[in-house]
Write a structure and sequence with these properties.
Layout (H helix, E strand, L loop, with lengths): L9 E5 L7 H11 L3 E6 L1 H12 L4 H4 L9 E6 L12 H4 L12 H12 L4 E4 L16 H22 L8 E6 L14 H23 L2 E7 L13 H11 L8 H11 L11 E4 L17
Parallel strand pairs: 1-2, 1-4, 2-3, 4-5, 5-6, 6-7
C-alpha cells in the first residue's frame, strides 16, 4: 500500500501560534506521517501558545488517527522580519512582549535548531502579515507595502538561506500562497496580493537555486479561504469562504487538513520530482472565470 512515510524526519514549521490555521494542519499531517515536529512562533504569541498547550486546550486538535496526541518537541520564538539579532531595532528589544525571550531572528533560530537537532528534513513557511491589509492598494503606504513584502515573501527567502545548509539532499520545503497573487480579490490589500505574487515567483527561482546548491525541493500551496484566527484580520474572510463554497467546482467546505495532507505529500519522497510548482488546494476555485451565483447570471 502506497503511503506517506516521514518517520524520523525532523520538520520545522515556521508560523504556528494556535490550532486553527494551515500551519497547525500541516504539522498534524506531518506528525501522522511519522515526522518529529518543531515549530517557530511569533514572540508576542509565544507565552499564550505554550500556556494553551500545557493546559491541554489543544488536546482535542492534537489527536492523531491512532488516538495519540501530536507531540511538539520544541517551540522556538521566531520573528521572521529580522534576519539576525543585529538588525532588530532597540524599541523591539525593549518591548515587553519580546523582553526575556531567547534570540528570535532567523539566523539565531537556525543556529539553535542546528545545535539541538543537527539538521532538518522538512521546512514549512506558514507566515504572512500585512499591517495595512484592509487598505486598497492605492491607499497603501510605502511602509505598509514593504512590511507586507518583508513578512510574507522575503521571510521565506531568508529562512531558506539560513536553513538550507542544515537540510540534507532530498529535503523539501513548502510555503503557503493565495489566489490574490494572480486574480483581483477586492479587499485583500495592503500589498498582500503583491507579496503572494512575489512568493510564487520566488518559489520558482529558489527551486532552481536550492535544487542546485543543496538538492532541496521548493514548492508552494495556493490554499483556499479558511476562517482561521489570523485570516480574520482581512475583515471579510467569512464572505470569502461563502463565495468559494458557492462558486468552486467542488462546492463543499475546504478543510485545513486537505491542505495539510497535500503538504505532507509534497514534503515526502512521493513528490521527489516535484519542485518549483504552485499546487492549488481550493476545491478548484482558481479554475473559475465567473461567479455562478452572480445576480447577472440568474
Amino acid at each position: 500500500m502506497l503511503k506517506i512515510d516521514l518517520k524520523g524526519k525532523v520538520a520545522f514549521i515556521a508560523g504556528v501560534a494556535d490550532d486553527q490555521g494551515y500551519g497547525w494542519a500541516i504539522a498534524k499531517a506531518l506528525a501522522e506521517a511519522g515526522a518529529r515536529i518543531i515549530v517557530g512562533t511569533w514572540p508576542p504569541a509565544l507565552k499564550i501558545f505554550k500556556t494553551a498547550l500545557e493546559m491541554g486546550k489543544y488536546d482535542e486538535s492534537r489527536k492523531l488517527s491512532n488516538g495519540e496526541l501530536m507531540e511538539i518537541e520544541s517551540i522556538y520564538p521566531l520573528d521572521a522580519v529580522y534576519d539576525d539579532m543585529d538588525s532588530v531595532p532597540a524599541e523591539i528589544l525593549e518591548n515587553k512582549r519580546y523582553k526575556g525571550i531567547d534570540p528570535f531572528a532567523i539566523a539565531e533560530v537556525a543556529e539553535r535548531i542546528k545545535k539541538d537537532y543537527g539538521e532538518i528534513d522538512v521546512l514549512v513557511h506558514s507566515l504572512a502579515n500585512g499591517p495595512e491589509v484592509k487598505n486598497d492598494l492605492l491607499e497603501t503606504s510605502r511602509q505598509g507595502y514593504l512590511a507586507a513584502m518583508s513578512a510574507s515573501a522575503y521571510s521565506f527567502v531568508s529562512i531558506l538561506r539560513h536553513f538550507g545548509p542544515i537540510m540534507p539532499a532530498g529535503s523539501a520545503t513548502v510555503s503557503l500562497t493565495y489566489l490574490a497573487s494572480e486574480r483581483v480579490i477586492p479587499g485583500y490589500g495592503g500589498g498582500m496580493s503583491s507579496a503572494k505574487a512575489a512568493l510564487e515567483s520566488d518559489t520558482r527561482t529558489l527551486a532552481w537555486e536550492a535544487g542546485q546548491k543543496w538538492k532541496v525541493r521548493v514548492n508552494t500551496i495556493s490554499a483556499g479561504a479558511l476562517a482561521s484566527r489570523a485570516a480574520k484580520a482581512i475583515g471579510f474572510i467569512d464572505k470569502m469562504k461563502l463565495y468559494a463554497d458557492k462558486n468552486a467546482p467542488l462546492n463543499k467546505d475546504l478543510h485545513a487538513m486537505e491542505v495539510g495532507n497535500t503538504a505532507a505529500f509534497l514534503l515526502s519522497d512521493l513528490a521527489s520530482a516535484i519542485s518549483g510548482t504552485t499546487i492549488y488546494v481550493d476545491n478548484g476555485l482558481h479554475a473559475m472565470g465567473v461567479a455562478i451565483d452572480s445576480p447577472t447570471l440568474v
